[in-house]
Amino acid sequence: MQWFGKPYSPQELALYANELAANSLGCVFGHTGYLINLAAPSSENRDRSVKSLVQEIRLAADLGLPFLVLHPGAHLGAGEAAGLDQVVAGLDEVLGVTRDCPVRIALENTAGQGTCLGSQIEHLAAVFERVKRPQRLGVCLDTAHFFAAGYDIRTPKGWNAAIRQVEALIGLEEVLAFHLNDSKTDLGSRVDRHAHIGQGKLGKEAFRPIVNDARFKQRPGCLETPKSESLKEDVENLATLRSLLRSSKARAG
Fold this sequence. Notes:
The protein is an alpha/beta fold and 253 residues long. It has nine helices and eight strands.
């Protein structure tokens, strides 16, 4: 919750690299700061948003992260069309300044709370279609946001319908990661409140087709569920998700 961070020292980068090498993590990616709002009308805060995102991309490049997840932003009353214009213009500026960086931006679908863009896959597709460097973009799909935005993914049929829309409008190859969260709020509520897996309105069984979807076998997923200092909730949520996985023998069958 701050606009700018401090560049990493060589010692910090070395420590990070050593820790990463010592742990068998398939993929580490980042999330941009929550103050960044590229969809906002021209203002001092939008100028800060552009500068902040540029810095975040450079910091991510120092760490060797493949991509950063970004909320498209909120139009703050200017309307969806004007907001999307601002997102495209902001990304063009940011990706132009950081053209030397391999870090991609994974646009996240949102619950649609307030004037936030991204609750419809069409919003994300519009950005892909219009930016000058679409190869620097990707998508991160959040299950709680899908549900709160009105996509009923509680059944395999509902999940497949949502993913077919992503495939048709953007392409499955652009899906870089998932946020696996249950939702405290109802279908179509447009309220962004995350719950532990199986303890929300989605329910445990909704995640079975998701974690077993062969189309995304090589894609990373992470939890944005409530946490205590010990992170014991993450251990419990991961155990719940893994209990839903079919064995390799069953998948072969």
